[in-house]
Amino acid sequence: MTAFKALGLDEQLLQAITDMGFKTPSEVQEQAIPILLEKDTDLVALAQTGTGKTAAFGFPMLQKINIESRTTQGLILSPTRELCLQITNEMVNYGKHKKGLNVVAIYGGASIQDQARNIKKGAQVIVATPGRMKDMISRRMIDISKIEYCVLDEADEMLNMGFYEDITEILSYSPDEKSTWLFSATMPKEVSSIAKKFMYDPQEITVGSKNVGSSNVSHEYYLVNTRDRYQALKRLADANPEIFSVVFCRTKRDTQKVAEQLIADGYNAGAIHGDLSQNQRDIVMKQFRNRQIQMLVATDVAARGIDVDNITHVINYQLPDEIETYTHRSGRTGRAGNLGISIVIVSKSEVRKIRSIEKKIQKTFEKKDIPTGMAICEKQLMHLANNIKKTEINHDIDTYLPQINVALEDFSKEELIKKFFSVEFTRFYNYYNKAKDINATAGVQREYSDDTGSVRYFLNIGNKDDFDWMSLKDFLKDILGLGQDDVYKVDVKDSFSFFNTDEQHKDLVLQAFEDFKLEGRNVNVEISENSGGRGAKGRGKRSFGSGDRSRGRSGGGGSRGRSGGRSSGGYKGGGYKSKRRDDSSGGNAGDRSKRRDSDSRERSFTPKTGFSEGGNKSKFSGKRRGKSKPDTGGTGGRRRRRD
Ligand code: AMP
Question: How far apart are CA 407 and CA 401, in angstroms?
Fold first, then answer.
C-alpha cells in the first residue's frame, strides 16, 4: 500500500486499492502514474492486456478530474464492447470512494436513448467504442468539447478493426489542449503514425520490450501433418484435463467447425466469432467465465474482448498471418500474475513462421511432442484418482450402503479399486490403445509450387458426386472464401478432380479440407505432382498425405461408406453441412436437444475429458471411441451461418 501511496495517489483511491486487494503497483502503473499525475502530458505506453494498464491510466484520470463538476472531462476509447464494459467496471471500482463520480459506458448493440439519458445526468468520464461514440456525437447526444484527458486503449486493436476514421472524427470534436494517453500492446507503423498525428511530444513508456510477449507465458509448438491437426488438438486437451483455453482459428468457418467437432466429441467447447449475434456471444462468454466451456474456439476479432484472467492455454490451431496477432493471442494467458502456455500446432510448411515469431517476441519456442495415447491415459487416470481424493463424501449414500455392500461383498479392496477405475478407464483406454504417433518429423521442406507460383491440387470428389467444373469451382470459392479468378484450371474427372490456386493460398486450401466431410465422407485435398498449367515445369511434389492419396485416387470415397449420392447436381453452398445430416438425430446444428437424445445429457456441462466428474453417465461415451461416428455439429443451440 505504501508503494501505491508513494506514487502520489490520493486517499480515496488508496482506500479503493485496499478494498480491491491490490498489494503492489504493477510495472506499467509504477511507470505511468507518477508521470500522469505530475504533468499534463501526452503519453505512449506499450503494455499488454493483463499488466494492470487500466489502473495505470484510470487512477491518474480519476485523481485529476473535478468530481464536483458534471462536465465530461475524460474520454476512454476502446475497441470492443466487452473491453468497454470491463474498463467501465474497473473505473467504477477505482472511484467508488469519490462521491458523485459518474462513469458511463457507450457502446453499440444497446439502447442509444438509455445511454444518452445516462450522459445527460452528467458523466465526468465516458468509456466508449468508436462507432457508437461517433454516432452519438453527430446526433449531439454527447459533448466532448471540454475533455481534458483522452485515452486510446488497445490502439493497435482499434486500428486493426478499422476504427481509424472514426477515431479521427471523434478527436476532431475534442479540444487541442487535452492530454492524450495511448496504450497499445504492439507498436506497428499505424500506431506510431497515429501517435505522431494526434500527440504532442509524448512521453514513452514500455513494459517489457516492444512487441515482446509477457514473461509469464511459455511458448510451445507441436509439429504434425496437416490432416492430424484436429487429432493433435484433442490429444493436447486430453493430456491437460484441467485445461481452460482459447483456441484460435483464422476464419469464422473454421472456428465454428472446430467448435462443433469438439462438442460432438464430448468436450466442453463453444465458438465465438463475428457471425454470432451479440446476445449469442454474451451467452458463450458467460459460459466460458463460468467454466461450463473449457475450450473457447475464437477468431481473432471476436477474441478481442475476452478478459478472463485464468486462461491456462492459448492454442493456435492455425497461425495468424500477422506476428502482432500472435502477441495478442498469447497475451490472453499469463495474466494477473498467473503462468500460461501458448501452444502452436504447426505443419512442416509453417515451421519457418515459428522462427519469425521467435525473433519478433524474443522468446524461444520449445518443440514438444504430442503425447502418446498411453501417456494421455496415464494422465487421465491420475486425474481421476486425484479427483476421487479431493471429493467430499456425500453421506446421503449411507442409506444405500448395506445394499451396496451386499452387491460387492465378494471383492477385495484392490479388486474394487480396479473395477471402479475400469468403469471409466476402459473406454478411454480403448480409444487411445492403438492410437498412432501423430508427431511429424521435421524434414527438408519440399517445394509445393511450380515456377509460376501456381499450385495444383488433387481433390477426391468428382462427377460421381454430381460436380461439374462450374459447380466445383463455385464450391471451392465458397469453401475457401476466394474470388472468381483465384481458383482456376478446374478439371473434374469421374471420382476426383484437379484445380489450381496461387501459391499464396496454399495453406488456406490445405487447412480448409482438414477433417472436411461431404455427406459423411472425408474430402481430401493434396498437392498434385502435375502442376496443371501456366507453362509450369511441374517440379512441385506432394509432401504429405500419401496414405490418403492412394485411397483417394482409387475412386474417391465410394468404398468408404458414403451414405448416398446427391439428388441433384452440384454444390448448393455449405457442403460441409451435409456431414451433419448423416446423424440420425436430425443433424440440425441449431437443434441441440435432438442430438442429445442419443447422448449423455450432462455431457457439455461436465468437465471436458474422458472421465465424467459428477454426471452419472460419461460424456465420453460413444463419439470418442467411434472415429467413424458422424459429426453431429452445432454449438450451444446456435444455427451456423455461412461466412
Ligand atoms: P488490465 O491490464 O488493466 O486489464 O488488468 C488486469 C487485471 O489485473 C484486472 O483484473 C485488474 O483488476 C488487476 N490489477 C490491476 N492492477 C493490479 C495490481 N496492482 N495488483 C493486483 N491486480 C491488479
Answer: 10
